[in-house]
Write a structure and sequence with these properties.
Layout: H1 14-23, H2 40-43, E1 51-55, H3 67-75, E2 80-82, E3 84-87, E4 93-95, E5 118-122, E6 125-129, H4 137-140, H5 168-182, E7 187-188, E8 191-192, H6 195-200, H7 206-215, E9 227-229, H8 233-239, E10 246-249, H9 257-261, H10 268-271, H11 274-280, E11 286-288, H12 291-294, H13 309-315, E12 319-320, H14 348-357, E13 362-365, H15 368-377
Bound molecules: SN-glycerol-3-phosphate and calcium ion.
Calcium ion (CA) binds at residues 82, 84, 191.
Length: 379
């Protein structure tokens, strides 16, 4: 564990423990990742040694961003479940990786919505499909989720057609229910997706996010919540309204879209420079880089040498939670591939251990069971 703690993390207080005690009641046995021998209230406000985020749920095993995927992630031992957030026409925050839902739902098979198919500019790039902001929640709830990458995750397709698109409120309700059942706090790690895009349509995500967290008693430093964004301006604005830790996401290429729109020439590479990270620390508590920004691949596709990102982020007081750790060879560095078949499972343990050795404070993983097991083996 690094000594860096998010500035919004506070030591357990009587009031925070009282809140935790109110939601955490004795129940069935917890997974091995859980410090189940301790009274629930003792662990409720303790920062995790190593943060395992169920990326879009346990999306290596269930269609992403479904309650089934989130529940499985929690049962596998994830500390947090991660809903990416977009909005409906009637301003309800729902969990999808992007506003376009043709790739992750059966909307194309609904003739009543055929006329909703459109081409829009998403962060400057044309995209054709169906968009959440053109649907009411009631309409969206008639759709069913499907596996995004069936070529790599054929086994997940057996769950196609079974689950709805969940709202943020449903994800929070699930995290509460599972916190009680598993006797450990299941955190949420929501991401505002394409904030500028939604602001430009008069459907800003941030007010609804603040309202929902506040309404659920989750807008305080002891809440097990991180809020993340690839954009900068909306995180800075949220810093004025939220009392939970914020995480600046960065990408191996390109620039925050709000920078692009505002003519700011800085790129994500600038954001993760030592100077950039000190700037981030003024409004956020962590950074969520792409894996390559922490350990780039060499010319042969194998892991190279770590960059200075972790050191510089820690010096700035930021935690580092890179994304995305996935078991399929398709997503692994060549040194951890098990075969030439992209869908085959490779050595995700090896990759996670290399990043742990590089000092990261947690990981986003589609396979949280592997991340949890890697953490347990290291103790
Ligand atoms: O939020 C961390 C990671 O999820 C960012 O990538 O595109 O999977 O949301 P993405
Ligand atoms: Ca995300």
């Amino acid at each position: 564990m690094v000594s860096v703690l998010p500035r919004r993390f506070v030591p357990a207080t009587a009031s925070a423990l009282a809140v935790a005690a109110a939601v955490l009641v004795p129940q069935v046995s917890a997974p091995s990742h859980s410090p189940s021998a301790q009274p629930a209230a003792v662990v409720a406000n303790k920062p995790d040694d190593f943060v395992v985020v169920g990326h879009r749920g346990a999306s290596g095993y269930r269609p992403e961003h479904t309650l089934a995927a989130y529940e499985l992630a929690a049962r596998m031992g994830a500390d947090y479940i991660e809903p990416d957030l977009v909005t409906t026409k009637d301003r309800v925050l729902v969990a999808r990786h992007e506003p376009e839902i043709g790739g992750t739902t059966d909307v194309a098979a609904h003739p009543e919505f055929a006329a909703r198919k459109k081409t829009k500019l998403l962060d400057g790039s044309p995209l054709t499909g169906w968009f959440t902001e053109d649907f009411t929640l009631k309409e969206l709830k008639t759709l069913r989720a499907k596996e995004r990458i069936p070529a790599l995750r054929q086994q997940n397709t057996v769950f196609d057609g079974r689950y709805q698109v969940p709202t943020l409120q449903e994800v929070i309700d699930l995290s509460r229910r599972l916190s009680r059942e598993l006797r450990r706090p299941i955190g949420i790690y929501p991401e505002t997706k394409h904030p500028t895009y939604f602001q430009q349509q008069g459907l800003a995500l941030e007010p609804e996010l603040v309202k929902t967290l506040t309404r659920n008693g989750l807008n305080h430093p002891g809440a097990k919540v991180f809020v993340q964004s690839f954009e900068v301006a909306n995180l800075k604005a949220l810093d004025q309204q939220l009392r939970v830790p914020l995480v600046q996401l960065t990408s191996a290429s390109g620039a925050p879209y709000d920078f692009v729109v505002n003519g700011d020439k800085r790129t994500y590479a600038d954001v993760v420079s030592a100077t950039g990270l000190r700037e981030v620390a003024k409004y956020a508590d962590g950074v969520g880089p792409a894996k390559d920004q922490v350990i780039p691949l060499d010319a042969t596709g194998k892991l190279g040498r770590p960059t200075a990102l972790v050191r510089d982020a820690h010096r700035a007081g930021l935690v580092v939670h890179p994304y995305t750790f996935r078991v399929e060879n398709n997503f692994l560095p060549a040194d951890f591939d098990s075969s030439a078949v992209p869908a085959d499972a490779g050595n995700l343990f090896g990759e996670i251990n290399a990043f742990r050795a590089a000092g990261v404070d947690g990981v986003f993983s589609d396979n949280p069971d592997v991340a949890v097991a890697a953490e347990a083996e290291s103790k």
